[in-house]
Amino acid sequence: MHSFYRPLPVALLPLAAAIITNNSWSAEDRRITEEVVVSASPLNQSVSDNPHPVSVLSGDALQRQASATLGATLQGQVGVSSASFGPGVGSPVIRGQSANRVKVMQDNLDTLDAANASGDHANAVEPLLADGIEILRGPQTLRFGSGAIGGVINIIDSRVPRSLPQQFSGAIETRHSSSSDESASVIRLDGAIGQFGWHMDGLYRDSNDIEIPGRADGEADPELTSDGYIANSDSLSTAGSAGGSWIGQRGFIGASVNYSENLYGIPPRSEEDAEYVQIAMRQTRYDVKGELGSPLPGFELARLRLGYVDYQHTELEDGDPGTVFASQAAEGRIELLHNPFAGWQGVVGIQWLDRDFGAIGEEAFIPQSDITSVGVFAIEGRSFGNLALELGARAEYQDIDPQQQKSVDHSTSSLFAAGQYRLSENQRLNLSLNRAQRAPSIEELYSDGAHLATSSVDLGNAALDPETSVNWEIGYRYQGAVELEVNAFYNDISDFIYKSNSAMIDTESGLPIYVYTQQGAVFKGLEAQLGVPVTEAWELRLFADTVRAELDDGADVPRITPRRIGAEVNYTTDQWQAGLRATRASRQDHPGDNELPTAGWTRVDAHLTWHLQEITVFANAGNLLDEDIRNASSYLRDVAPEAGRNLTLGARYRF
């Protein structure tokens, strides 16, 4: 076996087998959570019946892990890390892929923000306001388009209610974190008037510069960067939503509006930087959502999803407005779930996008452009005894028309086949093969100029071809006396597009030059999770993941998460929850051309929660060892490490 695979704790497998065989705690003895239906699955599959590797973060676990950014919230999940650009930005990375390869969605529709255009742009989502977060690892292009070639993060909310609340209810939460002096408060209200269900929520968050162990750049020279904190890392956020639905016997139709503002700083490369950059973002989002039973002969359900987003952010240079990124985008999807036919049940759909996006100002390195796309897809499933088979296909067309430049269009297609075999009532064996394509994005095609916020000159290439990914995956899942999940994947990508450090300096700006280029690449990896009940109240969880990404010329794909392994002990009763978690990340010796390696680190976290009827009091302790943690996937790992030792105290009241 290749040395890449050996460091993973494959020894978990015989251990798990012994536990499965001999463990005295039956499934009935354990507090097994109710099976969760994955909303991002068009066939309404549960987690265990889904042939894709999927996990759901919700309830107390979500409220415990929720952070200011989406990447920071999810980076403890197997196969997921964060591409941070300082504390104000944390984009999720799935199996080494991020940005235009990982689609972040708000309730099954694209967030339509500018997060993918540059590493310094934050996702316009608020984890503290989410009901749940679904993580689908691996290609999901069939239903959601070419931007989901690496995976999907789906933020589940109740802005548009699907069912009538039984009574008026709400929740108020406030928390404070020590490392950044962050204070955050949220409120949520739900109710109904006759057949009309409604929802309201709001958030306020304020934080100062984040505290770290030692110097920001890790060196001892006091003339370089800040000592004991990350300069210009403060932030201020507000958000609010209101929505409602008319709910009848055959379905519902509803709408919502959300407004959010976010002001956050970009850590400087050194204290000698001429200007401090902050990003002032504001967004208004309108959503329409509906479902109708028996809409047409032969169909049992129709789904409608529409969204319109007016987004803008301004890069402030020492408080003065600089480059402005603006986007007005509308996206929609219609799906029809047909009645069973010859044993097959599935969905057909159409998805479209119309977007006006670009940068304005002296450093406008992305031209103002009209972007349109349309895709049609079909996904079918059928069971043959213990074997469940799923097939799918999608065809998509994209056109980008930039001002004062020649337009470019691409046609892409994706095919998918997966099978799940039930070895027993508690065991599933999954196998999938996916051929997916992704059209290049506007920044990859047309970037041309200096970008002060990233301290780089970005150069696109209008001649880029679509990526073609051939991904196979095999997985095993056991849910019974213990819970075990193991997945192995191999992803061969032709014409892989990446942002390469050219090692050249722009003579006019003095900034390093990064060039979008493409060649073949291979991503391969393993993921494993094992949950073992020790007693009725105590549980041990072991986890590990690793991914290796190489280009065809033998070079390394940059900013790839190193191998990680960890253990977690949890204690749960009706009133108390407590846990201790330790994660070890290896040194990243494959950083990519002209990039620096990243040292390994050990992170220890703990949590304690007390429930008393409607009141919940919680304490979360992060990085208890006060480690200097620099994530290999972070763009600013050399000057912006993770927070040092941190204590978060909070309380939540439900009524």
Low-confidence stretches: 1-34
Mean pLDDT: 90
Termini separation (Å)?
Answer: 56 Å
Sheet having the most strands: 22 strands, antiparallel, barrel
**What general outline do the C-alpha atoms trace?**
globular
CATH level-4 homologous superfamily: TonB-dependent receptor, beta-barrel domain
CATH architecture: Beta Barrel
Helix content estimate: under 10%
- Beta strand %: over 45%
Structural Rg:
24 Å
Please give the number of β-strands: 32
Number of domains: 1
Indicate the structural class.
Answer: mainly beta
What is the count of DSSP helices, taking H or I runs of 4+ residues? 5
The first-level CATH class is given as Mainly Beta
Per the CATH scheme, the topology name is Maltoporin, Chain A
Describe the structure.
- The protein is mostly beta strands and 655 residues long.
- It has a single domain (12-316, 332-654), classed as Maltoporin, Chain A (Beta Barrel).
- Helix content is 5%, strand content 55%.
- It contains 5 helices and 32 strands.
- The strands form 4 sheets. It has a 22-stranded antiparallel beta barrel.
- β22 (448-451) and β23 (456-459) form a beta hairpin.
- The chain is globular.
- The chain starts with 11 loop residues before the first helix and ends with a strand.
- Residues 1-34 have low confidence and may be disordered.
